[in-house]
Amino acid sequence: MSALPYPPPPELGWYDEDATVMPQQTAETQPAANAQPVASAGTTTAANPPTTAEIAQTTAQPTTASQDDDDIDWEGTVLSTAFTASAPKQEYELYNEQTGQRIIVDTGVLLGRKPSQDLPQGVKAVKLDDPTRTISRNHAAISFDKDGLLWIEDYDSLNGTYIIRDNTETKVEHERMRLQAPCTIRIGDQFFTFEQR
Questions:
Q1: Pairwise CA distance, residues 106 & 96, whole Å
Q2: Do 51 and 42 meet the contact criterion of CB atoms below 8 Å apart?
Q3: What is the pLDDT, as a whole number, of residue 174?
Q4: Each residue of 91-114: pLDDT tens digit?
Q5: Residue 160 within a domain
Q6: Which of 65, 71, 121, 191 is the most buried (most CB within 10 A)?
Q7: pTM of the model as a whole
Q8: How many domains, in total, are found in the chain?
Q9: Where is the region Disordered (predicted)?
């Protein structure tokens, strides 16, 4: 089996950067010592320096199409906000008055009686004290989105996850729900106050 032929390198001028690279002059490419510079239309030689009017005309000329295209391409490129902005740094606290347990929520957190440790980067597992044995192994999760908004999700726990605000209890089920502090979160039979620090 013969080796695959590789294409030849691109010719000079293929890339935009090539225009700014001056080729090295060798003995073959250097002009002869007695050769006179040849002036073409619109150019000057050392014997005829450019006038102020010619300099102004040269600098006032419009840019080439390739330079315009580069500017258009760059201006038209919009990076995703996931690359250009990260979620605001915020810190919240879950506090269970009955057990005295305090949990800092400053990143995604999986809550449970014995939560899984096999988690994506940036998510932490927190073991909840469970004196009433009503908390599931992987019970619920709190997460931030890229805009810094908080969400809570129940993982099909046996005794449910609830958000309590203004004496109204809302069950978190089937899909994640928006979470806003301050409120109370009931996980199983354990009540946690949830506040921003």
A1: 17
A2: no
A3: 86
A4: 999 999 999 999 999 999 999 999
A5: yes
A6: 191
A7: 0.56
A8: 1
A9: 1-71
